[in-house]
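Continuing the series of single-chain predictions for the mutant panel. This is the parent chain; the variants come on the following pages.
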Amino acid sequence: MQKTKILLAEDDENLGMLLREYLIVKSYDADWFINGEKAYKSFVKTHYDLCILDVMMPVKDGFTLAREIRMTNAEIPIIFLTAKSLKEDIIEGFKAGADDYICKPFSMEELLFRVEAIIRRTRKDIAGAAQTEYKLGDYMFYPNTQLLKYGSQEHKLTTKESELLKLLCANKNTILDRNFALKTIWVDDNYFNARSMDVYIAKLRKYLKEDPSVQIINVHGKGFKLIES
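Parent structure:
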């Protein structure tokens, strides 16, 4: 079985070498780069399954790198490593395309747990039959290919966007419990993941705005409801 290949961008040489060696010991294939520019050059030439990006890097910072990666590959999972813990920075990270966010200092075990959780969620060979398409008003959603169609328009969703929309579709016209969604997709229902989910809900609303009969509404204190009138 082919190893999961990880792109690691970290400008702290000691931490970068340590993380790369730790991931290799844990049976991952990891390439480490000292700045965002070198990481991006490798990304466009090499297939990676996951990106771990430091935010504060020379030449090209992690947020800029993530946005460029997202332009090339909309669904590859991205984890940010950062010393920043301000809410505004974390929200900016999720807007840049992050799937997860780890504040320094962190334990190697925590990083491994988060990597494994993301790999489980994005693995394509999930056992069992799953619904392959959903009709939402004039939209068609294909979760296997992460594609949302509206007439001749097509929008490629990120992994998180697709997982969240799939949960909403599976619970259409009923309440999707907020904590259930967080633990299913983000594993942990902490504050930062909750804010991340709010960002993704806002993105999905934007994607579905062409058909007014399809709405995602907030249910105060409980969660969200995808309604199709």
